Amino acid sequence: MKKNNVQQKNTIITKSGSKEHFGFTLIEVMVSVSLFAMVMTLSLGAILSIIDGNKKAQAINSVSNNLNFAVDSMVRDIKTGYAYTCSSEKYLIPNPEVASSNVVSGGNGCDNTPDGVGSLSLISTITGTKRSVNYYVSQDPVTNKGRIWRVTSDDPGNQYPVTSAEVDIKTFKFYVTNPVTDYSGQPRVFLVIKGTANVNKTQTSDFAIQTLISQRNLNLPK
Fold first, then answer.
1. Is pLDDT larger for residue 183 or for residue 158?
2. How far apart are CA 168 and CA 128, in angstroms?
């Protein structure tokens, strides 16, 4: 008896006495497939967004690390150096033995240039010996992007890029302050860098860096 009841739940008895089994209609199948496709599309879109966000974050982190390295290397040279010389010229390498700052004592700026200059020379002592170092910005002939370059008196014939090819430097300015030689303060350089970083082939990210670098040597009267 129980067996017949179970069978009747799964079948329909027609007037002719034949039995027809239950099943899904075409509309029910289409609705189910449509709902499944919608859920899968949304899920796939979310996964692709996460992957793209991760790649973008890695690219930004790589560019950020390069910029931090470039700025840190310049800060170390400037902090341990002296005779900050402002110039709009490239490859300006003063004589380490007789070099002196071209910013007047008590002056603020680079030859009274309010907009700063795009090139700075100095005598660096970070290696333990005096050597001239020049930082400037120039367009890379290969990528046509602005890059920060470095040239030293050790190898004046070669210029080395400080920033990577993914970074396009738009603004690179130095503002030099040379206080009176007494206890009034330290010579210092205010550095401004602005530009864009290529995150991928279609996306770029703007950045702006400002830092104040104070000379490590004590500014005491001689």
1. 158
2. 33
Regarding beta strands 131-139 and 119-124, do their DSSP bridges make them parallel or antiparallel, or are they unpaired? antiparallel
Distance of CA 35 to the CA centre of its chain: 43
3-class DSSP state of 43: helix
**Ordered DSSP codes for 88-114:** SSSS----TTT---SSPTTEESBTTBT
**0.70 exceeded by the pTM?**
no
Of 150, 218, 141, 148, nearest to 187 by C-alpha is 218
Query: Which tens digits make up the pLDDT trace of 199-218?
Result: 767 777 888 888 888 888 76
Contact indicator for 190, 55 with CB cutoff of 8 Å: no
70 CB neighbour count, 10 Å cutoff:
22
Beta strands per DSSP E along the chain? 11-13, 19-21, 82-87, 107-108, 119-124, 131-139, 146-152, 160-161, 167-178, 188-198, 204-214
Q: Who's near 116: CB < 8 A, 6+ residues apart?
A: 109, 110, 173, 174, 175, 190, 192
Give the C-alpha separation, 106 to 216, whole Å: 18
